[in-house]
Amino acid sequence: MIKRQDLRIRDPFILVDNENKCYYMYGTTDLEDHCLDARNTFTVYKSYDLESFDDGKVVVDGNKLGFWADRDFWAPEVHFYNGKYYLFGSCIAEGKCRCTQIYVCDTTDGEFKPVSSKARTPENWVCLDGTFYCENGVPYMVFSREWIEVKDGQMWAVQLTDDLSDTVGEPFKLFNASEAKDVTEFGGIEGAYITDGPFMYRENGKLRMLWSSFNEGRYVVLIAESDSIKGKWTHLGSQYDFCGGHGMIFTDFNGKRMISLHSPNTADFERAHFFEF
């Protein structure tokens, strides 16, 4: 078993198994030492209390897939939809843009396979952190368009086909990072603002998005709000005063709504943390 405090992980995503009373944690774990570079696997860790986890099981192995991407397998998250489990994860290869690929499996911890040979973010855009959202029965992917391409990072969405194997129509922009008052320039670079880690949920009749960026060098959790995915987005500010982010929300077995995130945002020291939300 691995204790939570001993497992280096970024972008921890919790899938709750109510039938078996256990939790599955996915995240960026195949990391190189002392940096944010990653290799080419995604692993799931099983727990009954969110403090002790099993040794992990690889659910996406880039070496076995013969897959076009070969590194930086980042930020996996798994969603149950139409009787199957879909994993959304970022990846990259030499000469290719960073993207989000979608994989599918019949179980939470089986061998996930790509739903398509192509990424679901635009081929010539630099993107990451795709997440799943369904509105009025219509599936969408929400994703970040990276600051290294557009400088002022952006959030976009695109409609997906019912089997999530392709897109429908053109992507549409939700907002720019600089629109949020709690976001400041990244790394001292003039005009550079980060969008990172979107996660969609509904509350008080509103659609809300958790996302992350930087405030005076500190990694932060932010909330944006809209009436619908194609509506006008407003920004509600940052949530915590420590350096941590890339959050998502789940309900634990005590009925408490929880946020999962990693903190600190420092290579080698990142750990999963869970707080009532």
Q: What is the CATH first-level class name?
A: Mainly Beta
Mean pLDDT: 97
The sequence of SSEs as H and E is EEEEEEHEEEEEEHEEEEEEEEE
| Secondary structure: helix percent | under 10%
Record the strand order, biggest sheet. Answer: 2-3-4-6
CATH-level-4 superfamily name: Glycosyl hydrolase domain, family 43
Number-wise, the strands total 21
Distance separating the two termini? 27 Å
Cα shape: globular
Give me the CATH fold name.
Tachylectin-2, Chain A
Major beta-sheet overview = 4 strands, antiparallel
Low-confidence stretches: none
- Quickly give the structural class: mainly beta
Which architecture per CATH?
Answer: 5 Propeller
Number of helices: 2
Beta-strand percentage?
Answer: over 45%
Count of folded domains: 1
* Cα-based radius of gyration, to the nearest Å: 17 Å
Task: Give a short summary of the structure.
It is globular, with a radius of gyration of 17 Å.
Could you walk me through the main structural features you see in this protein, from its secondary elements to its overall organization?
The chain is mainly β. The radius of gyration is 17 Å and the shape is globular. The chain contains two helices and 21 strands. It has a single domain, classed as Tachylectin-2, Chain A, CATH 2.115.10. Helix content is 3%, strand content 53%.
How does the SSE layout of this entry go?
Layout: E1 2-3, E2 10-17, E3 22-28, E4 41-47, E5 52-53, E6 57-61, H1 62-65, E7 71-81, E8 84-92, E9 99-105, E10 113-114, E11 127-135, E12 138-145, H2 147-150, E13 154-160, E14 167-176, E15 196-203, E16 206-215, E17 218-226, E18 234-238, E19 245-251, E20 257-263, E21 271-276
Antiparallel strand pairs: 1-5, 2-3, 3-4, 4-6, 7-8, 8-9, 9-10, 11-12, 12-13, 13-14, 15-16, 16-17, 17-18, 19-20, 20-21
